[in-house]
Design brief:
mainly alpha; flat; 16 helices
């Protein structure tokens, strides 16, 4: 087979080569807030380790450049990612002075560009191989298990982001739980309210444009502004409505963040419900009517299952959106990973910013893969039910 250049692979290959030869691999700082000094691969790692990592990246760049089988490219990307995970920890240990608890070593732009290039190569190969939903979930679980093993092994203990975590381990999981509660709780509330509202908009066409236009207006309000707008009415409710404060309603904190995320979540759920139900074939409806089904039976047993993949797509959009927006909730005392992000910005400590940013990105990525697999599995479709 002729191995002519692959267009996407050329871009990935150029990115990997630039990261390897023209970008620093690690950054060393005497403490967490001062300006850092960059180190190349050969300055950050022992010579043998640096040569091995450079060779792995060069091989991955070569395989990415040409039209090799997608399976081979995926293997090269995974080997490259595993090597980066090992050698970044080794570089942190090599650069950290013995017994120095103040020094901070973090990945520099070269590492992140290599990681981005290899992750893009792996993603492109997975998309080309088109694995079934079960395989995608297994790949996600394997990636999560690998990350857990690396963290438990202590390989990354000298990285600055792990040191930031170690100093805040007691509150990290509390904020993580609050972040998940905000994102998933507002999604559940929006789903419970949005699907019936979407069905109503589908059935009553005169209501549809008014409701969707109102929800569109909510979407145009910036998140911080919406959080701020909710402080006054919720604060008034907490002060004047008996029992409101006891159930957690307040002008600041989790309540306005939850309400704002709920309002942002309604449009995708409602609009996708309307689109999904509208997309059901008229012939299918007529067949169901011919079988003697009542309108409610047609809705629950035929139309709704056929519309479910579209509705799940809206729920996926909401979940990923809420995981990101929940970070802003920290500005009004809502907690979540945003606590670390804004603390890090205030202290000019970028590693603390990463402590809040990286888990947010990983959580959104895992949620997107899981719901995509659920949508593609056709588990909720009429055909899927018949197969089951």
């Amino acid at each position: 087979m002729t191995k002519w250049p692959d267009k996407v692979g050329v871009l990935i290959s150029c990115l990997l080569l630039y990261a390897l030869f023209a970008s620093p691999f690690m950054t060393f700082r005497a403490n967490r807030i001062i300006q850092g000094e960059t180190r190349t691969i050969f300055e950050a790692l022992p010579v043998s380790a640096a040569i091995l990592l450079a060779a792995i990246i060069l091989v991955a760049a070569f395989i990415a450049f040409f039209r090799f089988p997608a399976g081979l490219k995926l293997a090269a990307a995974l080997v490259g990612l595993a090597s980066l995970a090992i050698f970044v920890g080794q570089a942190a240990s090599a650069l950290t002075p013995e017994g120095n608890s103040f020094a901070r070593v973090s990945p520099a732009s070269g590492f992140w560009l290599m990681f981005a290039g290899l992750a893009l190569l792996a993603t492109d190969c997975i998309a080309r191989l088109q694995p079934n939903p079960a395989v995608r979930i297994l790949l996600l679980l394997a990636a999560m298990a690998t990350l857990a093993v690396v963290l438990a092994s202590g390989l990354w203990n000298d990285l600055s982001i792990i040191k930031e975590y170690t100093g805040r381990a007691d509150i990290f999981w509390t904020e993580a739980l609050q972040h998940v509660e905000l994102a998933i709780g507002s999604l559940v509330a929006a789903t419970v309210a949005g699907i019936p509202l979407g069905i109503l908009c589908y059935k009553v066409e005169r209501l549809r444009s008014g409701v969707l236009n109102a929800l569109n207006i909510v979407q145009t309000i910036p998140s911080i502004a919406l959080f701020g707008l909710l402080i006054a009415p919720l604060g008034w409710m907490a002060a004047n409505v008996p029992g409101a404060a006891k159930i957690g309603i307040a002008g600041i904190g989790m309540a306005p963040a939850f309400v704002a995320l709920f309002l942002y979540s309604l449009l995708p759920v409602v609009s996708n419900t309307v689109v999904g139900l509208s997309g059901v074939s008229q012939a299918v409806r007529e067949a169901a009517r011919g079988l003697g089904m009542t309108p409610l039976q047609r809705l629950l047993r035929v139309e709704f299952p056929l519309a479910m993949p579209v509705i799940l797509t809206g729920i996926r959009i909401v979940l990923v959106q809420n995981i990101g927006l929940a970070t802003i909730a920290a500005l009004i005392g809502g907690g979540g990973f945003g606590v670390f992000v804004f603390q890090g910005i205030g202290q000019t400590a970028m590693d603390l910013v990463l402590l809040g940013t990286v888990p947010t990105v990983l959580l959104g990525f895992a949620a997107a893969i899981t719901l995509d697999a659920l949508i593609d599995s056709n588990l909720f479709s009429a055909g899927g039910r018949q197969k089951a």
